[in-house]
Specification:
By secondary structure, this protein is α+β, with helices and mostly antiparallel strands. The protein is 33% helix and 29% strand. The strands form three sheets. It has a six-stranded antiparallel β-barrel. The longest helix is centred in the first third of the chain and has 79 residues, at 36-114.
Length: 308
């Protein structure tokens, strides 16, 4: 005969507990008014929600960084576009300033002509600047505008620039006084003389017939003895004090005009006879004297500065 052992009750006990657990769960579900699906959904959400929260903490900063980088790239493109627009606007402002300066110059010139001045003035734009090989200026006016060789040229302030050397129908070549072959007859106060160009410098040499000293800053203007320029136009200023030796003195003059920065010049319709404007810059006069003692004749030559 078989006999039951105490350990044989384990399986029935386990089955009983499982049945009781299922009954309790079913009762709990029904008491809450939900079904099995609802309970499973709630349980799933309870498990997944912390995971979603953790993922959001990781993913959201990465998304924010990517969006920030995109915004930075967009802002850089906008900055570049704005810089280009600013450069265009600045260029337009410079062009307008040039136009306004030219307009004011023309108005001044035409106003002078309207007041009855006897010297015609033709404004011209500088289209060729001096360089290391050629110190001449090229302007956009020529014979078609009434420009002829020998006419004097000023800047917009009325300072002496030079004179016309060559002319074509549509352009002209201006030789500045700082590089020209001859000097300009000038005056410093009541004393007259000549300013002459010097090699490799814009500073000019002043040779003056003088009985009185000159001082740094003294104004040098064209003299009434000049054939190439009307009298009274500013040339430059004395650079250093100088005292006469005998009846003359020598010093240096800084011209008022900076040739490299010229953009507009004014050509004067002067003198009335253009041929006289191209006479040699120095002339030699000869005088004869008969000596009463023996009837012989002596000859004396005198060289005059610029045009005498």
């Amino acid at each position: 005969m078989l006999s039951r052992q105490p350990g044989d009750r384990t399986l029935p006990t386990l089955v009983t507990l499982l049945v009781i657990g299922v009954l309790l769960m079913t009762f709990d579900i029904r008491s809450e008014g939900g079904g099995v699906t609802g309970v499973l959904r709630t349980g799933t959400q309870s498990i997944v929600a912390p995971l979603q929260k953790g993922a959001a903490l990781v993913v959201n900063p990465v998304v924010d960084v990517i969006e920030s980088l995109t915004n930075v790239a967009t802002l850089r493109e906008q900055v570049l576009d704005l810089e280009a627009e600013l450069a265009d606007a600045e260029a337009q402002v410079v062009a307008l300033q040039d136009d306004m300066a030219r307009l004011e110059l023309y108005e001044e010139l035409y106003a002078l002509e309207a007041t009855g001045t006897d010297i015609g003035r033709t404004p011209a734009q500088v289209i060729g600047q001096p360089d290391a090989f050629d110190g001449a200026l090229i302007i956009d006016k020529g014979t078609g505008d009434g420009i002829v060789v020998g006419q004097p040229v000023l800047d917009t302030n009325g300072y002496v620039v030079g004179s016309v050397q060559q002319v074509t129908p549509v352009s002209a070549t201006i030789v500045p006084i700082t590089v020209g072959p001859g000097g300009v007859a000038v005056a410093v106060g009541n004393q007259i003389g000549t300013v002459l160009p010097q090699v490799n410098t814009d500073v000019m040499r002043l040779d003056l017939t003088a009985e009185e000293p000159v001082f740094a800053g003294d104004r040098v203007v064209t003299s009434s003895a000049s054939v190439r320029f009307p009298a009274g136009f500013p040339v430059g200023e004395v650079l250093a004090d100088a005292a006469p030796t005998g009846e003359s003195l020598t010093t240096e003059v800084a011209p008022y005009v900076q040739m490299e920065t010229l953009r507009v010049v004014v050509i004067l319709a002067w003198p009335p006879d253009p041929i006289s404007a191209i006479t040699p810059d120095t002339t030699t006069t000869t005088t004869s004297t008969t000596l009463p003692e023996d009837g012989s004749t002596s000859t004396t030559s005198t060289t005059l500065g610029e045009d005498g």
